[in-house]
Amino acid sequence: SRGRPEAVLDALHAALCTLARSHRMMTCQAALLDDEAGTLTIHSAGHPWALLARPGRPAEFLEVRGSILGARRRNRAPGTKFTLLPGDVVVFYSDGLIEDIDRRTGKAIGYEALQAELPFLVAPTARETAEALFAWFRDVTGGGPPTDDVTVLVLQDRVPGSSPAAIPSPGGPT
Predict the structure, then answer these.
(1) Cβ atoms of residues 2 and 69 within 8 Å
(2) 3-state class of 1 per DSSP?
(3) pLDDT over 70 (residue 148)
(4) How far is residue 150's CA from residue 118's CA, in Å, rounded to a whole number?
C-alpha cells in the first residue's frame, strides 16, 4: 500500500471490523506528500481537518470527507489533493487539542481558536512550530494533564541542512 493512503485506511477499517467484537471506531487521516509536484493528498476517516497556514493569510481548514473506521458501513470518499506553496505549513492534530477546556472560558478550546492562533505560532521549523502549539495548548488549558490524547504532526518547508519532522507530544500521551 506504499503511495496509497486509501489502502492504509481500508486495512485499518477491516482490522477494526474483524478484530473488535464490540463496536470500536476510530478516526484518522492518511496523506501522501508529493514533494516534486508540491501537492498533498489527504484521505480522511472522519478525523478533524488539518489546518493550512499560508504566509500573510488566515489559517484555513483542509476539508476532506470520509466516514469513521469501524462503522458497519464505511463510505470511502476519494482523497482530496491540495497544492502547497513555498512557506506553507500544514498541521494535523488529534481532537484532544481542540476539545480540552480553555481555562479562561470554561468551554472547549474549539476549532476556531486553533484556526485563529495558528498563524501566530508558525516558527522557522516544524519542530519549533509544534513546540509553539504545545506551549499555546498548555497556556490555554492551565498546564494540567490533558483530558484526551494530544498529538500534533507538522509538515513544513525544510530549513537548509534539516529534514521534515513529525513531532509527537513531548512527555505526554500521544
Answers:
(1) no
(2) coil
(3) yes
(4) 16
Collapsing DSSP to helix, strand or coil, 129 comes out as helix
- What dihedral angle (degrees, nearest 10) is formed by the CA atoms of 143, 51, 166, 145? 20
Phi then psi for residue 118, to 5 deg, are -50, -45
Round to whole Å and give the CA distance between 63 and 51.
Answer: 9
Residues in the chain, total: 174
pLDDT in tens, 42-51: 988 888 999 9
User: DSSP labels for 105-172?
Assistant: TSSB--HHHHHHHHHHH--SSHHHHHHHHHHHHHHHHTSS--SS---EEEEEPPPTT------PPTTS
Q: 65-119 pLDDT, tens per residue? A: 888 777 766 666 678 999 999 999 999 999 999 999 999 999 999 999 999 999 9
Cα gap 65→35, rounded to integer Å = 23
DSSP-based three-state secondary structure for 73: coil
Return all residues near 73 (Cβ < 8 A) that are at least 6 apart: 67
- Identify the helix (H) or strand (E) that includes residue 62: strand 60-62
Phi, psi of 30 (to 5 degrees): -130, 140
Query: Where are the extended beta strands (E) located within 87-166?
Result: 89-93, 152-156
- From the list 81, 172, 160, 83, the residue with the least C-alpha distance to 130 is 172
**Residue 69, beta-bridge partner list:** 26
